[in-house]
Amino acid sequence: MSDTTDLATYAMRLGDNALVLGQRLATWTGHGPSLEEDLASTNVALDLIGHARLWLAYAAQCEGRGRDADALAFTRDARAFTNVLLVERPNGDYAQTIVRQFFFDAWHLLVLRALCASRDARIAAIAEKAALEVTYHVKRSGDWMIRLGDGTDESHARMRVAIDDAWPYTAELFAMDAVDDAMVARGIGCDLAALHAPWRTYVETVLTDATLAFPTDGVMHGGGRAGVHTESFSYLLAEMQSVARSVPAERW
Amino acid sequence: MSASQLWEVFVRSGSGLAHKHVGSLHAADATMALQNARDVYTRRHEGASLWVVRATDIVASQPEDAGSLFAAADGKPYRDPTHYVVPDGVKHL
């Protein structure tokens, strides 16, 4: 693959993660557990969709195939999406939404902080802007981990289920492939494998505060970054893309 | 959130300005109240600083005391700056 193809793929992965989690969170809008929480989670969704715009615009520019960020978001099929499986996990109950969010936020912040030192000026600039917002995201989701874990018997039990559900999807966050290796070698990307230990340490700290046990590693799932997604992803995509696909030339 | 309390929110919109009451929200404790205040009231660059105060901590005057508290100000125009002549050239007073 050429240099710009790797760069396009790299930016697209970051964009797809943000877009898909933003879309998942956005479906809570109007259904949040309280008005305040509804607005707060929608804010996070909007932050993520803002990041997705920046990453996908850069991916589109790098690939040079005449597509823009909207074309990447709204006209690709599931097989062409490169997000990790964790972010496409269904919302479930609020414990599942929060656990998914926290596992991702904690990883996201480590990645963005590392990318602030990227040799690619655009990647460094987007990472710097996004890191500010994600600092708040991880604080918020971490607080909810503790509140729900160290809350009632009911919330604690639901958190345990949610953690066991989400855990098998966390390994994919740290898996390196040829694109990652190439980006690291060029000083553009970050070493995901090296972030695994700090991530585990941080997650363990929060789980301890939340009186929740650190999960044991079992079978781990992956494949999202290669375009192999879970069943529920096709429904997410259908909903997200339906308007853009039914009126392709429309502007608003 | 069954244990949620009512909090009053004050936002200072810029340096040198006073915190101004903007509304209220529900939260279980101070940390959540501050985060909720950020998300509910400062999403469009309204704020430079936030205060949240438990609504139960605010001591309010009672409507039936309005007479004794505020009527004394009636009929004392000499307390108003109306008769003060603003010198020429003073723009910010």
Q: Can you offer a commentary on this structure?
A:
The complex is a heterodimer of chains A (252) and B (93). Chain A is an all-alpha fold and 252 residues long. Chain A has one domain (3-213, 226-246): Ferritin, core subunit, four-helix bundle (Ferritin, Up-down Bundle), CATH 1.20.1260. Chain A contains 10 helices and no strands. Chain A has helices spanning 3-26, 35-63, 69-75, 85-88, 94-115, 121-149, 153-166, 178-185, 192-209, 231-246. Chain B has a domain at 1-59: Roll (Ubiquitin-like (UB roll)). Chain B has 2 helices and 3 strands. The radius of gyration of chain B is 19 Å and the shape is flat. Chain B starts with a strand and ends in a 23-residue tail after the last helix. Chain A binds chain B through residues 33-37, 39-40, 43, 136, 139-140, 143, 147, and chain B through 1, 4, 25-28, 31-32, 35-36, 38-40, 43.
